[in-house]
Amino acid sequence: MTKPPRKKSQPLLRETDAPIRSSPRKPRDPAQPQLPFDPMPDRIEPCLALLKQRPPSGSEWIYEIKWDGYRVAVHIKPNSVRIITRGGHDWTDRFPAIADAARKLGVGTAILDGEAVVLDHEGRSDFGALQRSLGGRGGKKASAEAILYAFDLLYFDGHDLTNMELSGRRHLLEDLIGESEGAIRVSQEVEADGATLLAAACEHGLEGIIAKHRDSTYRSGRLGDWLKIKCVQSESFAIVGYELSTAARGGIGSLLLGAYQGDAFVYVGSVGTGFKEKDAIELRRLLDTLKTKRAPVGVDKKGVVLVQPTLIAEIEFRAWTDDGKLRHASYKGLREVQDNAAIFKLDE
């Protein structure tokens, strides 16, 4: 795959390859004020990207590739590293290569915001491969293949950076990580027009792009400072049942999907493609433990097996039909509870 152009890092802190350390390089001038250290937070709620159909234009926006994995924060202290999922769970032991790379960054304290991913042979993030490397939903395996694409620096060397503008935070991040191709890499800012970059991303089979306002501070929640523009729509839906098949692997012909409308589930269609054999067999095992006679949604199909809406599936699709069903849907994998994935909500 042809990689998008990469913006060369501009070192902000130093002109040397020596690691960044907390100790001062020369005695402090007593006449200068002493900057107080900010307490390192146990957790920072992530800034989330708002979905848009088209990328914004203008010099105030920067663009990155959208990575498809698990959102994590890497907390680094002098004697410890913690990798925290979006849902607040400690997954340090699940991502050993990332944790080891974090210990070797040579920084006293830091919090990196990024996406843990597994890459395919063309360098694209593969959510299904990440899931399998972790042992599937509910699995306890450590992923030796997972790497981190870091795209923000929230705390550094004793100082809270969330009130600094994004462009400044990125300078510090790039200077800290450099152009590493190891287990922690910088998600590169791409100098391109948003529409041109989106077209290139879609041509190369990527999920989409992220646009970020370069002067924005880091604000938790989905407030519009960050935008996501996808090549193919991808959302999380509850599995509410399945159709049996004697021909399909695992005996699943298709999964029945539900979304929220208000406080209730509604049926939004089915998905019958995208399963690998191992995925389908494990899915059937999990679903058969969740069978129910009480329909979680109104399903206009006969001969289906209904299940409690406990499992959350990530589904790619092209569009919605006029009657509110998914078009050209494809299964990507199950979301973890620890990932804090939100079931898609329809407009009321």
Short structural description:
This protein has 348 residues and is of the alpha+beta class.
Query: How many strands in all?
Result: 18
Global mean pLDDT = 86
Order of helices and strands: EEEEHEHEEHEHEEEEEHEEEEE
Described by strand count, sense and barrel closure, the largest sheet is: 6 strands, mixed
Using only CA atoms, what is the Rg?
22 Å
CATH-defined topology of the largest domain:
D-amino Acid Aminotransferase, Chain A, domain 1
Terminal CA distance reads 42 Å
Structurally, the number of domains stands at 2
Helix count from the secondary structure assignment: 5
Molecular shape:
globular
Decide which structural class fits the backbone: alpha+beta
Low-pLDDT parts are: 6-26
**In what range is the share of β-strand residues?**
25-35%
CATH homologous superfamily of the largest domain?
A: DNA ligase/mRNA capping enzyme
**What portion of residues is helical?**
10-25%
What is the CATH-assigned architecture of the largest domain?
2-Layer Sandwich
